[in-house]
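Progress note, sequence design subtask.
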């Protein structure tokens, strides 16, 4: 592990060495950190980029951007508070057409996770909020109190991959008929009362993850970004995505696979059937943290990094 992965003041970027090594292809290029968070990866990239490079940091959580000290980056840095699904608009507003690298380190930052007022952590007491972007009105409280029992079970199952989804959804509905649920402790109680005590913590993590994904439309915005990001890359430019659960990783894997497949011309084939790959996969398998990093940084244990490069072919 090099100095890039050493713990900083309160945040350690995950797989920072690997990201820097695989993302940078032009040290004077333009790089987008689409999930800026506490700026850990951007600082690591900055150490290796030339002074004339440019960094664009995007985060929809204004509290993350507000606590960053821009003087830590010596290159030109643009910080933009928005959803990364708006990447093409961000680049348009900055008069940029194509960039050399885009990084996504999905999920939430440790600063927000540790803030009880945000409601992300089941170990802390707080409101049922879970919004990355607090200017949105849609919170976990709305989901938990207003969705039907079937819809709650579907979300817990689909986004949390939790086997006891129906039982937990039924318990939430029973509890909310007595009183509107407003705190993370109440959601925690609904889960704890529905699952085997031996697996409680795993179930709690899955259920809280499921509601967070729903509140922030995480799968939808990732799909939008994957579509638009590749058009924003210059030929040879790379997209690196670190995901923390199988749903995200599967989406990234399938997207990279589909766009890197070629279908060469065969006799009698129509032009529309020929496919020239628009992407080249740089990581055949996802990269994961080594034992040392995983031991030092629990968040790294579930991280998977996939990287793909835009070819010089036009998209069909
Ligand atoms: C895991 S943290 C990133 C940490 C960062 N790489 C670092 O080293 O400091 C993910 C960040 O992405 C932000 N985020 C998640 N989804 C987003 C989205 N759709 N658009 C913009 N920011 C998003 C979260 O608010 C959070 O700050």
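Output:
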């Amino acid at each position: 592990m090099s100095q890039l992965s050493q713990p900083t003041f309160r945040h350690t970027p995950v797989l920072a060495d690997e990201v820097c090594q695989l993302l940078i292809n032009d040290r004077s290029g333009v790089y987008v950190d689409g999930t800026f968070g506490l700026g850990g990866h951007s600082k690591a990239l900055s150490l290796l980029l030339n002074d004339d490079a440019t960094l664009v940091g995007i985060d929809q959580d204004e509290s993350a951007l507000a606590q960053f000290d821009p003087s830590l980056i010596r290159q030109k840095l643009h910080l933009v508070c928005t959803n990364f699904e708006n990447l093409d608009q961000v680049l348009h507003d900055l008069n940029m057409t194509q960039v050399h690298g885009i990084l996504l380190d999905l999920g939430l930052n440790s600063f927000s996770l540790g803030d009880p007022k945000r409601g992300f952590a089941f170990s802390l007491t707080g409101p049922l909020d879970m919004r990355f972007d607090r200017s949105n009105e849609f919170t976990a409280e709305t989901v938990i109190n207003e969705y039907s029992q079937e819809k709650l079970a579907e979300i817990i199952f689909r986004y949390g991959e939790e086997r006891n989804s129906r039982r937990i959804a039924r318990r939430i509905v029973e509890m909310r008929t007595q009183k509107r649920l407003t705190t993370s402790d109440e959601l925690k109680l609904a889960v704890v009362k529905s699952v085997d005590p031996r697996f409680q913590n795993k179930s709690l993590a899955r259920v809280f993850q499921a509601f967070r994904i729903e509140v922030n439309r995480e799968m939808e915005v990732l799909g939008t970004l994957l579509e638009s990001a590749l058009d924003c890359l210059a030929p040879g430019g790379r997209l690196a995505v670190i995901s923390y659960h199988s749903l995200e990783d599967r989406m990234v894997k399938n997207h990279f696979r589909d766009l890197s497949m070629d279908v060469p011309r065969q006799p009698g084939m129509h032009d529309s059937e020929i496919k020239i790959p628009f992407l080249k996969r740089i990581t055949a398998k996802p990269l994961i943290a080594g034992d040392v990093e995983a031991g030092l940084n629990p968040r790294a244990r579930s991280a998977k990094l996939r990287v793909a490069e835009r070819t010089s072919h036009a998209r069909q």
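Strands lie at 30-33, 54-59, 76-81, 99-105, 233-243, 279-281, 304-310. Work on this subtask will continue into the next period as scheduled.
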